[in-house]
Structures are given as structure tokens and as C-alpha cells.
Amino acid sequence: MMQNIKIQNQIQSLIKPNFSDIQAQSSQSSSFGKALQQSLDQVNRLQLEADANINNLATGKQTDIHQTMIAVEKASVSFELLMQIRNKVISAYDKIMRTQV
Fold it and tell me: Which of 2, 5, 76, 93 is least buried, going by the fewest C-beta atoms within 10 A?
């Protein structure tokens, strides 16, 4: 149980700065589409960093496997979060479309 709390705190600390940037921009009347695009860009950046770390490890430019695994896990968690958000948005859209007027 304690380990779950620690993991959740670490995930929140990784995500919180990114969402605070998005919230600050949202207060400046940015659109949902812009916030979504920024989130997609962030996930893509993490994926590219993980790929670069894997390539560097495979070619011998980097010897620290821990750094590579951390980058891969960050990319994986951010992608899974993005997929969950997508699923919730699609579910909400389906509910709205089923609503009778």
C-alpha cells in the first residue's frame, strides 16, 4: 500500500509541472485543442527521448541502463495516461450522442 502511494506521488510530480503549464495557458483563453496538442507533443517528446536512450545504449554511447529504463518507463506511463484520457473523452462523447433531446 505504501509503495502505491509513493508511485502515485512520483507520477504526480512528473505530470504536475506539465499540467500546470497547460492550466496557465488555459487561463489565457487557449482552446481544448491547443491543450490536447501540447499533451500529444509532450508524449511524443518522451517517446523520442526513450528511443534515443535505447539507441545510445545499443551502440555503446551510453552505459547507464537505469537512465534508459527510466526514460522508457516515463514514455510508457505518459502514453498509457494519454490512452486513458482518450478513452474517457470517447466515452463522454458517446454518452452525449446517446442523449435524447
Answer: 2
Within 10 angstroms of residue 12's Cβ, the number of other Cβ atoms is 10
Q: DSSP assignment of the chain, as one string?
A: -HHHHHHHHHHHHHHHHHHHHHHHHHTTT--HHHHHHHHHHHHHHHHHHHHHHHHHHHHTS---HHHHHHHHHHHHHHHHHHHHHHHHHHHHHHHHHH---
User: What is the rounded distance in angstroms from the CA atom of residue 9 to the CA atom of residue 12?
Assistant: 5
Segment 40-79, tens digit of pLDDT: 999 999 999 999 999 999 999 988 899 999 999 999 999 9
Question: CA-CA distance, 74 to 67, in Å (whole number)?
Answer: 11
Predicted TM-score (pTM) of this structure: 0.63
Nearest one of 2, 40, 25, 51 to 10, comparing CA atoms: 2
